[in-house]
Each structure stands twice: as structure tokens, then as C-alpha cells.
Amino acid sequence: MRSTALAFSLILTPFCASADMVDDILDQQILPGMETLASTSTTLARAAKADCRSNSTLMRRAYDDAFDAWMMVSHFRFGPTETDNRAFALSFWPDSRGKIPKALSALVRNQDPVINTPEDFATASIAARGFYAMDYLLYNSEITGASTAEYHCNLFQAITADIANTAQLIHNDWQASYADQLRSPGDRYQTEGEVKQELYKALNTGLQVTADMRLGRPLGTFDKPRPKRAEARRSRRSQRHVALSLQALKPLAIALSVDNVALADKFHLTFAKAHKAVERLDDPIFASVADPADRFRVEALQQLVNDIRAIADTELGPSLGVDPGFNSLDGD
Questions:
Q1: What's the pLDDT band for 180 if we cut at 50, 70, 90?
Q2: CATH 1.20.1420.20 holds for 19-184
Q3: What percentage of the chain's residues is helix, strand, coil (to nearest 5)?
Q4: Of 274, 266, 264, 267, nearest to 303 (Cα)?
Q5: pTM as predicted
Q6: What DSSP state is assigned to residue 328?
Q7: How far is CA 56 from the centre of its chain?
Q8: Where is the composition biased (Basic and acidic residues) (predicted)?
């Protein structure tokens, strides 16, 4: 009898650990993160209503808070954020073809009435929506200077209201049904293994975006650095985004480690090294990549992020029973 009970408990333990892992990630990371995104985005829209000047301290502060909130959940790019291209509506980046300034300039030049209602603006070019459009408008006088004061104000209010609405829709969908689909596989996710793969992919993709895009794009090559490709450089948020990404990804990596203390400790140590490397940079827009004597600091940070990726690929993936060989930016 005792052996039967022991055998049953050994079978049940991995299931319980996995269920607890998903609950922990949902209740400690995803759900509160999406709630913060919705609330800070609403505050941003209200700030634009109160003071729509591009140099408004109130609006710039609200923009930073809402953008920070997005950065803390942007790696959970599945489910509600995929619906109707909501993630792209919030963060059209990288913009390798310069579509954002073109889209915004076209709106301003034509005094386009598409900004007059939320329903119409939701059909506007996705490049004219979201946080990166705000990065241009708040910190680029060439675009805002070509606009009348009234249109300028209405454009700010249209974009911030659209951000707030998109964020609220994402939050609502997580609360209404999507969290339950992760907790109880059987519909969208057929098995717990599929849930674990989705969460693992979120971690892997987040690390890849930080290493290859947030750091790799401005680094370019030694002979041809690309500092102007740094993310959100106009608002001087490039380094901050790397720091926030690491801050958000660390608890996800540790939660996915479940009861593997050695693996969790390894993540703790490697993330701590990366955090210290970010703090030591003191280079908000990665301007140092253009200096052969200083770019090694950014390269060293990129290597630390890749070290974390290697741990996820070679140790975490197999421990979860997930194939680590797929390209996380290509989807399933």
C-alpha cells in the first residue's frame, strides 16, 4: 500500500510542479504585468488630454511609465498580444525601412482626418501607432514642427488613446479566458508540454531580441557600427530597454527551472553578471559602439546575454522536454 502511494506521488509530483510553475508565471508575472500595462497606458492617454505639448513633462513621464510596463511583458508575444496585430500596434520595431517617420509625416502633411476617431485611427498605418511613433513625436521637432498646433495635439491624443485601448484589450483577454487556457490545457493548448513550450519560447525570444536586435543592431560590425539603429534612441531609452528586458526575463527563467535548484542558481548568477554589465555602461543610446576603444563593453554585454541563451538552450529546454533547436523568432 505504501509503495503504491509512493509510486502515485512520484507520478503526480512532476504534474503538480508543472502546474505550480504555470500558476506562478501567470499570477506573479503575466497578469499583474498586463494590468500595469493597461493602467499606465490609460494614464498616458489622460496625460495627453491634459497637456499635449511635445515637451510636456507630464506626458513624457507618463510615456516612460507606460513604455516601461510594455517592456516588462513584451516577450509574452502570444495569445492576446497577437490578436489583431496588437503587439505591432504597440511596438512597430525594428523599423529598418524608416516607415514610422514616413507614416507620421504623411499624416501631418495631409492633415489626415483618420486621427479624428478611435475606430478610424485603428485602421491607420501600423507604423504611425504605438510607443515608437511617440518616440518620434515627443523627441523629433522636424515632424511636430510641420504640424498645426491643433492637429499636433489631436495626433498625440489619438496615438495615446489607441495605445490605452490596445493595452486594455490585451489585459481583458488575459483575464477573461487566456490565462485559464494556460492553466487547464485541452483547447488551444492540448497538453502541458505545449504550454511549457510557449513559455519557454517567450524566454528564448526575449533573450534573442535583446542580444541580436537591442544590442546587435547598434553594434553592427567593427568596421561599420550602427549607433543610430539603437532602439528608442530619441527618448534615450536604448540601454534602459536592455536593463528592463533582463529584469523581466530573469524571473521567467527561474520559474521555468521549477525545482532544479542548480539551474536556477546558474540563471541567478548569469543574469546578475549581465545586470552589472548594463549598469556599468552609462551609455543611454549606445553611442560608444562607434568608438573602437569602448564598443567592447557593449559586445561583452551581448555575450553575457548569449550566455544566458546558451543555458536556456542546452539545459532548460531539455529539462522541460522542449526542443531548443527552433528559431524562436520564426514561431512554432
A1: very high
A2: yes
A3: 75, 0, 25
A4: 274
A5: 0.91
A6: G
A7: 25
A8: 223-233
Distance CA 250, CA 248 (A): 6
pLDDT in tens, 259-313: 899 999 999 999 999 999 999 999 999 999 999 989 999 999 999 999 999 999 9
CA–CA–CA angle 137, 138, 142 (5° rounding): 50
Contacts 24+ apart (CB under 8 A), 316-324: 316/200, 316/203, 316/253, 316/256, 316/257, 316/263, 317/200, 317/204, 319/257, 319/258, 319/260, 319/263, 320/196, 320/197, 320/200, 320/256, 321/193, 321/196, 322/193, 322/196, 322/197, 322/200, 323/197, 324/204
Measured CA to CA, the distance from residue 27 to residue 21 in angstroms comes to: 10
Cis? peptide before 94, omega within 30° of 0 = yes
